[in-house]
């Protein structure tokens, strides 16, 4: 039970809780009085002897409305509508009995009346109770409908307020001895506990309406001042009427007023209506000032968030400034026209100029005239980033330094390019290292090649029998030694070539070259090798115009492509096709071999790449041939590309321009 209440309370607002509590209390009150009528417990029906009783139908009405409040608080719309409608009908039918002086048989339908103190129509619900019951039923009916309109909560709240006011007026009437406040005309009067019960029902209804209104906004409903005004005005009107009608017949002596002043009703009316206005107005003022305070707090919060954000931004700016200042690279900020605005300590170290010497000066003296004037700044203005231009700069003391420069556009909040950030990195150290590496590779290769030549020479001498006759086994071993010496020699050559290509120092001899003849020769050289492996070798070489290039180097390229085609084709065919194309000369080397996956193709022209394929692993190779072939072809101004499907074969296309661009 406690758990159920807790879980209900955690998911519903205070308004719904009030409604549930009031509903339960009203239903319990009604239940007690019904029990009183059934068991002849007069103390339950009549609060004090002589005071008006709570009629059986009224008690029943409390049970119905109490239950409806409970179902409404649990969001059960249909039962709420049914119970609310029933209460409304009972209230309305009773009022009709009064209005048309009719007897619909409602009064003693369920119980025969036996408490008759202050009762003019035995068993009949008093007209003020009937009105209150009808209004409560209507309010509950309104709350049960799913409409999203504001009237869904405003109207029920108003009706609930009137019900509270009717109950309050009756209680005030009892307290002040004004019978007209709890009994209308000469009809039956509302009992004390009926008045209390209606206050509960009215309060529950307003609570529910509040709950519905809060679902749409977090604040108290704007109609609250109206309700307060209406409540006071209704009580006032009841009191004005009661005071105007004077003492009544048939009423207990305790409740009679004695000799009221004739002007009292009008004074009460004026004071009450004024109070209603004041209450409504002061609540409205309070509500407005709360709203103002809330919006003030919200703008305060926004302001303090803004100031935090500004603080954070300032901190970030300081951190960035520290990074820029302590960077080893030269970082230079310029305006759109190239005027230096930022010059960090790295720039001071690299160029030797202090910040004050260069600030406000044009940056063009720094970037090589070629790059600067051609397009660096115009590209940057278009928002492009220019990555790592390698150039030479002059330092303050006249030294020439190799630098790599990256220019990026700087943008304002709107994304408009407002300047450039230039990062210059000193390449001297890198260049020195590269030089050392080249020298090292050169020396090592030379030192390896010299003894290798000697080894090869002596192997040949021994194989030729210059050192005496050889057995077959000795000759075979010497052949193996010779083959391996060749392999070592070509590996050294490949390493040297790759080193030169990487350092962009590959040199080629340029002369008119007959590529058709070169290709015929290469094909002839490899034909025997292909055929010994059982591969068909298709050769179709058109007569080609002579190109400007390095013959031996081109032999190297096509030998590598054809030997690869043979090596990586276990069976099937290989071929070479050369023709004059629009872009120059096109040579296609194809095979029906193992092929290459997309990932392998992406790595194909990188150093030491060899596919993870048993056929590749079993075959000798260094993974340098294609890197060298690409370097040579590009040095001729051409391109090399591959189209390959794993398991189906590869097509290598080499394009060489005519005349070769060198
Ligand atoms: P190598 O053949 O000495 O290994 P390459 O640079 O000539 O070195 O080739 C690199 C790698 O590319 C080879 O190991 C092989 O895996 C792959 N490759 C080259 N040509 C072909 C081809 N025609 N078919 C399939 N794979 C090839």
Describe the structure.
There is one protein chain. With 662 residues, this protein is of the alpha+beta class. The chain folds into four domains: 2-218, no CATH class; 327-426, Beta-Lactamase, CATH 3.30.450.20; 431-502, Helix Hairpins (Orthogonal Bundle), CATH 1.10.287; 511-656, Heat Shock Protein 90. Helices cover 58% and strands 13% of the residues. The chain contains 20 helices and twelve strands. The protein has helices at 2-11, 14-39, 42-45, 56-73, 77-99, 127-144, 151-176, 192-216, 224-245, 264-326, 345-351, 355-358, 369-381, 428-463, 472-502, 515-532, 551-567, 598-603, 614-618, 625-635; strands at residues 330-335, 340-343, 386-394, 400-411, 417-426, 511-513, 536-541, 547-549, 573-581, 584-591, 639-645, 649-656. The strands form three sheets. Strands 2-1-5-4-3 form a five-stranded antiparallel β-sheet. A five-stranded mixed β-sheet has the order 7-9-10-12-11. A two-stranded antiparallel ribbon has the order 6-8. A hairpin with a 5-residue loop joins strand 4 (400-411) and strand 5. Helix 5 runs antiparallel to helix 6 (127-144) and helix 9 packs antiparallel against helix 10. The longest helix is centred in the middle third of the chain and has 63 residues, at 264-326. The model is unreliable at 248-259 (pLDDT under 50). Residues 560, 564-565, 568, 591, 593-596, 604, 609-611, 616, 621-626, 650 line the site of adenosine-5'-diphosphate.
């Amino acid at each position: 039970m406690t758990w159920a209440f807790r879980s209900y309370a955690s998911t519903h607002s205070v308004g719904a809780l009030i409604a549930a509590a009031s509903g339960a209390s009203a239903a319990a009150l009604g239940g007690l009085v019904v029990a009183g009528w059934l068991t002849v417990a007069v103390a339950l029906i009549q609060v004090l002897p002589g005071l008006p009783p709570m009629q059986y139908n009224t008690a029943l009405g409390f049970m119905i409305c109490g239950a409806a409040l409970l179902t409404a608080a649990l969001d059960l719309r249909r039962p709420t509508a049914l119970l609310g409608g029933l209460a409304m009908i009972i209230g309305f039918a009773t009022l009709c009995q009064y209005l048309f002086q009719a007897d619909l048989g409602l009064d003693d339908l369920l119980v025969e009346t036996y408490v008759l103190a202050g009762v003019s129509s035995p068993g009949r619900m008093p007209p003020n109770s009937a009105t209150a019951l009808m209004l409560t039923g209507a309010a509950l009916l309104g709350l049960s409908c799913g409409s999203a309109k504001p009237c869904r909560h405003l109207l029920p709240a108003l009706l609930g307020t009137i019900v509270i006011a009717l109950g309050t007026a009756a209680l005030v009437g009892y307290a002040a001895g004004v019978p007209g406040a709890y009994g209308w005309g000469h009809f039956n009067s509302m009992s004390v506990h009926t008045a209390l019960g209606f206050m509960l029902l009215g309060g529950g209804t307003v609570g529910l309406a509040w709950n519905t209104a809060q679902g749409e906004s977090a604040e108290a409903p704007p109609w609250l001042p109206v309700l307060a005004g209406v409540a006071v005005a209704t009580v006032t009107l009841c009191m004005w009427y009661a005071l105007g009608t004077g003492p009544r017949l048939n009423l207990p002596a305790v409740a009679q007023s004695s000799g009221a002043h004739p002007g009292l009703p009008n004074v009460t009316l004026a004071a009450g209506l004024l109070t209603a206005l004041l209450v409504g107005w002061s609540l409205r003022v309070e509500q407005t000032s709360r709203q103002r305070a809330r919006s003030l707090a919200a703008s305060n919060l926004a302001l303090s968030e803004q100031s935090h954000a500004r603080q954070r931004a300032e901190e970030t700016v300081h951190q960035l400034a520290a990074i820029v200042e302590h960077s080893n690279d030269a970082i230079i900020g310029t305006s759109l026209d190239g005027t230096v605005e930022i010059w960090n300590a790295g720039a001071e170290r690299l160029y030797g100029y202090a910040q004050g010497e260069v600030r406000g000066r044009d940056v063009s003296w720094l970037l090589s005239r070629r790059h600067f004037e051609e397009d660096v700044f115009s590209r940057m203005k278009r928002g492009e980033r220019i990555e790592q231009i390698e150039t030479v700069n002059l330092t303050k003391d006249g030294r020439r330094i190799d630098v790599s420069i990256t220019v990026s556009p700087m943008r304002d909040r709107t994304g408009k390019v407002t300047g450039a950030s230039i990062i210059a990195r000193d390449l001297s150290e890198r260049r020195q290292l590269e030089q050392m590496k080249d020298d090292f590779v050169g020396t090592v290769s030379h030192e390896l090649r010299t003894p290798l030549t000697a080894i090869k020479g002596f192997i040949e001498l021994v194989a030729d029998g210059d050192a005496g006759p050889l057995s077959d086994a000795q000759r075979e071993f010497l052949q193996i030694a010779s083959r391996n010496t060749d392999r070592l020699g070509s590996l050294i050559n490949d390493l040297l070539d790759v080193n030169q290509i990487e350092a962009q120092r590959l040199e080629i001899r340029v002369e008119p070259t007959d590529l058709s003849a070169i290709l015929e020769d290469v094909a002839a050289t490899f034909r025997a090798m292909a055929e010994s492996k059982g591969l068909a070798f298709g050769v179709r070489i058109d007569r080609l115009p002579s190109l400007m290039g390095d013959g031996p180097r081109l032999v190297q390229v096509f030998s590598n492509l054809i030997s690869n085609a043979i090596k990586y084709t276990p069976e099937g065919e290989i071929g070479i096709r050369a023709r004059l194309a629009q872009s120059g000369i096109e040579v296609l080397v194809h095979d029906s071999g193992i092929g290459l996956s997309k990932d392998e193709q992406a790595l194909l022209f990188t150093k030491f790449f060899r596919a993870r394929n048993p056929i590749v692993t079993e075959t000798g190779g260094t993974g340098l041939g294609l890197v060298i072939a690409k370097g040579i072809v590009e040095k001729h101004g051409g391109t090399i590309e591959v189209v390959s499907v794993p398991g189906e074969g590869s097509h290598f296309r080499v394009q060489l321009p005519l005349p070769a661009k060198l």
